[in-house]
Design brief:
By secondary structure, the protein is of the alpha/beta class. 37% of the residues lie in helices and 24% in strands. It has two domains: 235 residues, Thiolase/Chalcone synthase (Peroxisomal Thiolase, Chain A, domain 1, 3-Layer(aba) Sandwich), CATH 3.40.47.10; 159 residues, Thiolase/Chalcone synthase (Peroxisomal Thiolase, Chain A, domain 1, 3-Layer(aba) Sandwich), CATH 3.40.47.10. α1 packs across α2 and α7 crosses α9. It is globular and about 60 Å long. The chain starts with a strand and ends with a strand.
Length: 409
Amino acid sequence: MKSVGIEKINLYGCSLYLDQQKLAAARGLDPRKVVADFLIDTRSLNPLYEDTVTMAANAAGPLLEDEDRKAIGLLVVGTESSVDFGKPISTNIHGALGLPANVRNFETKHACYSGVAALDSALNWIAAGLNHGKKALVISTDYSRMHLGAKEEFVLGGVASAALVSDSPRVIEYDLQAKGNWTSDVYDTFRPSARHEVGNNEVSLYSYLDALEGSYQDYLSKNGQSLDFDSFFAQCCYHTPFPGMAFQAHRTVCNLVRPRGKAEVQESFARKVLPSLLYARRVGSTYGASNFLGICGMVMAVPGLKAGDRVSFFAYGSGAIGEFYSGRLCAGAREEIGRMQIDQALDARREVSVEEYEGIEKAREATIEKPDFTPDFSVPGGWYEQNYRGRRRLVLREVKDFYRTYEWS
């Protein structure tokens, strides 16, 4: 079977961020405890002239050269934050990126799993030979709704990832034959309307862990060999509704393999999981892009990783699905990801105060589903002129009779 995987990958962590310790202090909570519990240092925030379409395009734009655009035959966009319930945002993104007309495109929806569902479609399309030499662009893009003062407020955020998938992987090659799944019907977290993001945290926690155990056991049954979890996987990447959840996930798998003490689990977590949280800690909730951030984080945080090192992945989608899969790192992974300058882009974001954050969230909430809307480009003060104008970033210009107009800055 041919090699199939990610050739290029990039992240877009929005252009604004909020410091979690400052938010905790404003809510009367212990800042250090909040960060320690959730492992989120800062969370991403969009100005009013950005949405899931602009985030996706701003992740993919720097990734693609002219030859890449010509080679794309499939565009799949995973999101649970679409701006339309009928028209897929993949069409908006296709137009913004200037992709060829003969491209198959569609949008996938499954809370927190949509990005991996999009990836699965692309991998299978290429592995089956249906691509006829073409490549796939896989995008995951999401951001949270407003939860001011609620307990969920500390696990919010937003991010977009873009991956060029082909039969010439330079970042990671996936084990297509080894994949485990688990499904159930639960209401853990869900979005019953464009305005609401609700759920039950306790149900979500247990459903996540059930899905992890079930999909890992299914992975073992399909892998065709008995494997030693501790030595088989060089790194482990888990879905992160918040980065702190990765510790509970790793502890669960470690104890499935064999019972072990807390100190041993903590050592394994620090060595094999913590590197994958490098970027998740800076953007907050990662939604469907979680595993893609994990790839970038572990490769950039662990210089000693080498070609052929195997990585385990766990993707979780509320509602619910668990998927346990794996892949092997490619020789040029670190150079390919480093070329995107993800750290520099996150460093260049503007910090907003708690008051600015609350104002932006309230203003955005007031515009959802309005037929006519023109974003205020003056908020936060001077940021569009400083960070957008002339820098070729996609922005939302206006909404008129529900028609959305985008333009490059």
